Amino acid sequence: MISVENIEKSYNSEKVLKNASLKIEDSEFVSIMGKSGSGKSTLISIMGGFLAPDSGRVLYDGKDIFKYNDSQLSSFRCTKIGFVFQAFGLIPTLNVMDNLLLPSTLGKSQSKEQREYILELCKALEIDTMLKKYPDELSGGQCQRVAIVRALSYEPSVVILDEPTGALDSAMEKKVMELLVKINKEKGTTIIQVTHSERVASYGTRIIKINDGEIA
Ligand SMILES: Nc1ncnc2c1ncn2[C@@H]1O[C@H](COP(=O)(O)OP(=O)(O)OP(=O)(O)O)[C@@H](O)[C@H]1O
Ligand SMILES: [Mg+2]
Fold first, then answer.
1. How many structural domains are present in the chain?
2. Is any atom of ligand 1 closer than 6 Å to the C-beta of 31?
3. What is the mean pLDDT of residues 115-137?
4. Residue 113: what pLDDT?
5. Ligand 1: which of 9, 35, 40 to mutate, most ligand atoms within 8 Å of CB?
6. Helices then strands, each counted (H, E), the chain
7. CATH number for the domain including 155?
8. Atom of ligand 1 nearest to the CA of 196
């Protein structure tokens, strides 16, 4: 279970998250919605351990991730959490396959099974012919799909996605959402996605609304 407790976060003097609390059970599929600038990306960056809050706690199964030291926190991010950034976060000097293998290299060792699983995910999202290309040779939607496969590649127990279908056409959006639903159902992976789309949100089982830094 993920428990976010009384998170406050300010940038300069602007308070972006105000006493934000929420709980997410294992194997839930949650959609976070709210206006642009309401604090969604900030909230999930904190939930993924990428950004420290000013105050408050984020507990995974009762453990406060911001009490971890640097190496414990980076190991948590590389093994437990799959994160799809709003701006994709691909490494420009690595080709697609090496981008996909990066978390496995940082976290646990790569295996043949893992390469096969990555290939299976790439086929599902129709990027399996692009593995030798570099990010700047791909379209925005193709980069977005690489970022999604990378987050799923090492079978983390929690996947957090920031507007995962923003760059995709509606047919590909459906494929991505059906893949997330399948992984959620078959592997029990917890999925947390930020979206502006009611249609994308409806694939989840619960909607959390955030309004001007406050969870409704
Ligand atoms: N690194 C930063 N430095 C200063 N201000 C920031 C920073 N990141 C975000 N903000 C501000 O914090 C507020 C919340 O930003 P955030 O990115 O969390 O919003 P969001 O809900 O994800 O919006 P969008 O839907 O447009 O992605 C905004 O007012 C933004 O300008
Ligand atoms: Mg955002």
1. 1
2. no
3. 96
4. 86
5. 40
6. 7, 10
7. 3.40.50.300
8. 25
Instruction: Find the helix or strand (DSSP H, E) in which 210 lies.
Output: strand 206-211
Ligand nearest to the CA of 36: 1
Q: How far apart are CA 93 and CA 150, in angstroms?
A: 16
Host domain of residue 42: 2-215
The answer to whether residues 155 and 188 touch, using CB atoms and an 8 Å cutoff, is: no
- Is residue 45 within 8 Å of residue 34, measured between CB atoms? no
Which residue owns the Cα nearest ligand 1 atom 10?
Answer: 11
The model scores a pTM over 0.90: yes
Residues 6+ apart with CB under 8 A from 111: none
Whole-angstrom Cα distance, residue 17 to residue 122? 36
Structure confidence by residue, pLDDT tens digits, 45-92 = 999 999 999 999 999 999 999 999 999 998 899 889 999 998 888 888
Task: Find out whether the beta carbon of 39 lies less than 6 Å from any atom of ligand 1.
Answer: yes
Ligand 1 atom nearest 42 alpha carbon:
18
Cβ–ligand 1 distance for 16 under 6 Å, the answer yes
Gap from CA of 40 to ligand 2 centroid (Å):
6
Q: What is the mean pLDDT of the chain?
A: 94
Our answer on whether the CB atom of 11 is closer than 6 Å to any ligand 1 atom is: yes
